[in-house]
UniProtKB/TrEMBL annotation:
Keyword DNA damage: no
PANTHER family referenced in this protein's UniProt entry, alphabetically: TRIOSEPHOSPHATE ISOMERASE (PTHR21139)
Enzyme Commission (EC) number: 5.3.1.1
The protein's name in its UniProt record: Triosephosphate isomerase
Pathway: Carbohydrate degradation; glycolysis; D-glyceraldehyde 3-phosphate from glycerone phosphate: step 1/1; Carbohydrate biosynthesis; gluconeogenesis
Assembly: Homodimer.
Organism from which the protein derives: Streptomyces koyangensis
Organism phylogeny: Bacteria, Bacillati, Actinomycetota, Actinomycetes, Kitasatosporales
Length: 270
């Protein structure tokens, strides 16, 4: 019987989708570098999303490090697929999370919002965390971005149990070629809209921003009022200096939240 208990999420998170940038010859050195940084990365809730051929290596190299890993996609149809990986197989391989709805798959493979919702539900049904990508295709006003994101989010929330853990990755498709992130006030508006839409859920939810993330993007987004729990990083995850700088920002966010949650000694009972 499949495990269905939702996974608890760390208070802050970062993730990277390696796409097909790594293979069996290049993954070991990169993974060894992550292992050396594991104490910081694990506190920053680092999650690596990998292609299937690297699952076995990930299970070995990340065991006991606190670095989480998972898949870049999942098959959601109940029929046995050819050339696809169903949720049960991913869970058996050790995946802790699954990316759903990346904008490349939406655009190139025609994945619909309904398809993405089915994938998220399939992942949650195997106690894996769906990392659901949402975002507008073209640059435009913040209001249009909010509408696009909420339209994509609605089927996912309808399909998921209220107690399922869920990560939103707001990643506007147009930022990939723009070389710069979305405007920080827009990131704040989208994050606020997602949080409001998730009000009342009992499961853990996190909101991340992705899209041209480099050092300083998270800090500036937070300064603009974005209620983010972290970021998704792309090629910056393969640059040791940039990776360390973004991780330091995440640890600063974690420290500020821990400090805010700490009891005030001046109000301690006597």
């Amino acid at each position: 019987m499949a495990a269905t208990r939702p996974r608890a999420l760390p208070p802050v998170m970062s993730c990277t989708n390696t796409k097909a940038l790594l293979d069996h010859t290049t993954f070991p050195a990169w993974a060894d570098a992550l292992r050396a940084e594991a104490p910081a990365l694990s506190r920053a809730g680092f999650l690596v999303l990998l292609p299937g051929p690297l699952f076995d290596a990930a299970a070995r190299v990340f065991a006991g490090t606190g670095i989480a890993w998972g898949a870049q996609d999942v098959w959601s149809d109940g029929a046995p697929p050819t050339g696809e990986l169903p949720a049960e197989a991913l869970a058996h391989a050790g995946c802790q999370a699954v990316m759903c709805g990346h904008h490349e798959r939406r655009r190139r493979l025609g994945e619909s919002d309904t398809d993405v919702a089915g994938k998220a539900a399939a992942a949650a049904g195997q106690a894996m965390v769906p990392v659901v990508c949402v975002g507008e295709r073209e640059e435009g006003p913040a209001g249009r971005a909010v509408t696009a994101v909420l339209d994509q989010a609605a089927p996912v929330l309808d399909a998921l149990p209220a107690d399922a853990s869920l990560v939103w990755l707001y990643e506007p498709a147009w930022t990939g070629g723009a070389g710069a992130p979305a405007p920080y006030p827009q990131i704040a508006e989208v994050a606020a809209a997602l949080r409001e839409r998730c009000a009342g859920r009992t499961g853990d939810s996190r909101v991340l921003y992705g899209g041209a993330v480099t050092p300083g993007v998270l800090t500036r987004a937070l300064e603009a009022g974005a209620a983010l729990d972290g970021v998704g990083i792309g090629r910056a995850a393969h640059d040791p200096a940039q990776r360390a700088a973004v991780t330091a920002e995440l640890l600063d966010l974690l420290a500020s939240r821990e400090q805010a949650a700490a009891p005030d000694p001046r109000k301690a009972p006597t």
